[in-house]
Specification:
Blueprint (H helix, E strand, L loop, with lengths): L2 H15 L3 H9 L36 E5 L3 E4 L3 E11 L8 E11 L5 E4 L4 E5 L2 E3 L6 H13 L8 E4 L4 E10 L6 E5 L9 E6 L5 E3 L5
Parallel strand pairs: 1-11, 3-12
Antiparallel strand pairs: 2-3, 3-4, 4-9, 5-8, 6-7, 6-10, 10-11
Amino acid sequence: MNSRFFRRQAILLALTLTCSAAMLAGCANNTDRNTSSINDADRPHHTVYSPTVPENRVDDDAPGQNIDAVIGEEVNYDNKITAKVNQVVEIDDVNKANGRTLLAEMTITNNSDAAIDCSTLTHFSLIIDDQEDIEPLRNVVSAIIGRKYYTQIKSDLQNFNSKIEAGQTLTGYVYIGAPTSWKSLKLVYIPYRYYNTDRITYDIKEDELVHYTEDLP
């Protein structure tokens, strides 16, 4: 996975998210009945934040530190960043034969003296049954369902799509188009992607999911 690949994926997702409501509804009819009616309040962001990619970016396969973590545990990374997955919400009002929608709500604090980038599209990945994959974090249907959920519960929580300034704490979420079943599922956060490959890996367990059981419009 190189920078050209990530940029291409971001561009493709941006184009998808800015398509017409009719196209979105048509796509959703093939995957999940909940996205057949979409209004502006339910849509994900129409713009994709583009983190700065340095000229001499680190190779993605370069060795780096890994910190294992669990839901609810605050992790201190190098005295620069603290990060905690507060909870992982599963939206039950979906057709699970086509996959599941999980929303990992996180609080990240930048304790360094410089701004850091934080984007769902670039700073996170998923490990499913020991195989790393980025596609579940680019699932348009899950992005839409997540936006509908936070609108319904009247929350202004947004997916990570911005800088975090020095000294700032940001709470947001990562939407995940998860498979119907798994043996192990881990969310990977890479705080300084492009600069090093250090990562925090959160183990997501079935019995720790918070289920939202109400119908979505």
